[in-house]
Design goal:
Structural class: alpha/beta
CATH class of the largest domain: Alpha Beta
Helix content: 40-55%
Strand order of the largest sheet: 11-10-9-12-13-15-14-16-19
CATH architecture of the largest domain: 3-Layer(aba) Sandwich
Distance between the termini: 50 Å
Length: about 650
């Protein structure tokens, strides 16, 4: 009984962590109280006492616990889809007992939707399995790590996706973005004959012009003297002056990327394919630029300027490359998905007082996510300070620098702290003077091809960033798993140099499809700067491949409701040292020569069951008998 009490305490903490109010050994709801009065699992007609009963929205949660994992469930069929309803099963097994109580409540009360949970084990080794129960029967659902999806804020969404099979809202939004990027790609190609890198620049230029209050799309008339491109260019120039993009040299660097809209003849000529009938047999032709501006204003502007961490411009950039038959890898370009940019800020508990630096900022995804989290937690004048002083980035490529600058201008922030430069050519000593407390990086991949380019390896980018941060600065990097192994002799040497000067906090192995379509198996590495790694330091190595994201045909990687609970479990283990099975997280000391990955340090810490021992013995005896029958008895003779 003492062991089951441990399970009860563990489950009650999970419920409290998800802000779910519960009643132990019964219910505060009169209807359910009455129903449980005759709900004995032994069928005596006496009272029944489920471990916990809770209500979330209009769903009832009923929970049964068992201390032993082998008492989780008893099936009535070989396919493991039907639970036994025999008295012995209901009495002795968690899921069977939970289902029994759920049916009692369903039959004797007005509640129509119930989640029954069978739970077993302890904080480190446990199973939590939800079962949805209604008048039509029951549905066995995937195991969960916590009750995050069953809080009042999340339960409706979980029910719609996992029980009803509806498409999640995030997937619908992603489908919409992909649809718009496809349509825009076609238009930019067909009417503008634009190259891969030019398409996102035209979109960025128009977005900036649309943000200028003195600019209207109606002014785009196809005039041959002052072209539509010139009008857009003038408007975006005015807007950059209005929002005080400084210094002037940086402003000119961005403007130089946008000159194609006024210089490209095809964009500024009226196209008979883009005509609108204004009266009977009277048509008005548009230039491609006017057509693009109308489409962007109607379909994209609000998405980019909304209070969201989604890097829509970055998403378009990636899609334009993909539609053109590439994936960006030839340039080392691997744009980071939104859920990863958000995770970076959460895994180090980013605060409004932090100064964030991304030395390979691309289109600005990490800066957007970091700024979003800091602003949400900031108060009053703190918000202005964050925008002006706490967001910093470097980008070497001119086109991406222009897109990142556009992104930050449209978000109202940080634009004065973006620099177009080569990060590796900047002295770490000079960068340290900026007192960056946080470094985020997704460096160019696979650029080190030999001795001449060895300095372009991912691990060298990480080292240079660590050297550039303030004392005790936190560094988070997403890189191929091979980076943590040490691909070359030079990389292995850099791993050792890093530990001589900085501390590895741990590495999180990610879903292999995180960069869907790119073919990179990524991981996230977390470091503390300018604090030599102690040989007694226990690092955390996590297997986060099951992150709740799945590949959806024609869309790519999409979020399921499981992602919330999986991330909550990760953050509990990482930030709050919640115990976990070694198959999820291992804590261990390290050596520079080690492969800094969960798979290298993993060991099976599950206690073998009696049946496991019996099976192993049976397998051995079967093998020995087989060998003897084949005339190989000498294998078992004592020497």
């Amino acid at each position: 009984m003492a062991n089951e009490k441990k399970t009860d305490i563990f489950i009650s903490r999970l419920l409290e962590s998800a802000d779910i109010s519960y009643t132990p050994n019964g219910s505060d709801i009169k209807e359910i109280q009455q129903a449980l009065k005759t709900a004995s699992k032994k069928g005596t007609g006496k009272s029944g006492f489920p471990e916990f009963v809770a209500i979330s929205k209009d769903f009832i949660l009923v929970i049964e616990n068992k201390s032993a994992l082998e008492k989780q469930v008893l099936y009535a069929d070989e396919d493991k889809q039907i639970l036994s309803i025999e008295k012995k099963a209901v009495t002795n097994y968690a899921e069977n007992g939970a289902l029994f109580y759920a049916n009692e409540i369903l039959q004797k009360t007005s509640f129509k939707k119930i989640f029954a949970f069978g739970c077993s084990g302890d904080e480190k080794h446990h199973i939590v399995r939800p079962i949805f129960v209604n008048k039509a029967g029951y549905k066995l659902l995937e195991k969960v790590e916590n009750f995050e999806n069953f809080s009042s804020a999340n339960i409706e969404k979980y029910y719609k996706e996992q029980v009803l099979g509806e498409t999640p809202q995030e997937t619908l939004e992603l489908e919409d973005i992909l649809k718009k990027s496809s349509e825009l790609h076609e238009a930019l190609r067909n009417y503008g004959q634009l190259g891969d890198s030019e398409k996102p620049l035209v979109v960025s230029a128009i977005l900036l012009a649309l943000s200028e209050e003195s600019f209207t799309i109606d002014s785009l008339s196809g005039d041959t003297l002052k072209t539509d491109g010139q009008k857009i260019f003038d408007a975006l120039t005015t807007h950059m002056t209005r929002v005080e993009v400084q210094p002037e040299v940086k402003k000119n660097q961005v403007l130089n990327q946008f000159t194609l809209i006024k210089d490209r003849t095809l964009l500024n000529q009226k196209d008979e394919r883009l005509k609108v009938e204004i009266s009977k047999n009277n048509y008005l032709e548009k230039t491609p630029l006017k057509y693009f501006a109308e489409y962007i204003q109607k379909n994209i502007l609000s998405s980019v300027t909304s209070n969201s961490t989604e890097d829509v411009l970055g998403r378009f950039y990636g899609e334009f490359i993909r539609y053109s038959g590439g994936d960006g890898q030839t340039l080392g370009v691997v744009l980071t998905p939104k859920h990863i940019t958000e995770l970076f800020s959460e895994i180090i508990d980013l605060k409004p007082s932090d100064r964030v630096f991304d030395p390979c900022c691309g289109t600005g995804g990490f800066l957007i996510a970091g700024m979003h989290k800091m602003l949400n937690e900031a108060k009053g004048k703190e918000k202005d300070k964050i925008k002006k002083e706490h967001i910093h980035g470097i980008e070497i490529r001119e086109d991406m620098f222009a897109i990142a600058t556009t992104n930050m201008i449209l978000r109202g922030d940080g634009k004065s702290n973006l620099i177009k430069d080569d990060f590796l050519r900047r002295r770490a000593e000079d960068l340290r003077k900026n007192n960056y407390s946080v470094g985020f990086i997704n460096p160019p991949y696979s650029q080190a091809k030999g001795k001449d380019t060895a300095h372009l390896s991912e691990i060298n980018f990480i080292k240079h960033l660590l050297d550039s941060l303030a004392e005790n600065g936190r560094c988070v990097a997403i890189v191929p798993q091979s980076t943590m192994v040490g691909k070359t002799k030079e990389d292995k040497a850099i791993k050792k140099q890093i530990l001589n000067n900085h501390t590895l906090e741990g590495v999180i192995t990610l879903n292999k499809n995180t960069f869907y379509g790119v073919g990179t198996n990524p991981c996230i590495a977390i470091f503390t700067a300018h604090k030599p790694h102690s040989d007694k330091k226990h690092c955390k190595f996590v297997n986060y491949e099951d992150d709740g994201f799945i590949v959806s045909k024609h869309i790519g990687l999409v979020e399921t409701t499981r992602a919330k609970s999986q991330k909550a479990h990760l953050l509990d283990c990482w930030l709050h040292d919640k115990p976990s099975e070694s198959k999820f997280m291992v804590r261990t000391t390290i050596e520079p020569e080690d492969e800094w990955l969960h798979s290298f340090y993993y060991f099976n810490d599950e206690t073998p069951k009696a049946e496991d021992f019996e099976k192993t013995i049976a397998d051995y005896l079967t093998f020995e008998f087989s060998m003897i029958m084949q005339g190989r008895s000498y294998l078992f003779e004592n020497q």
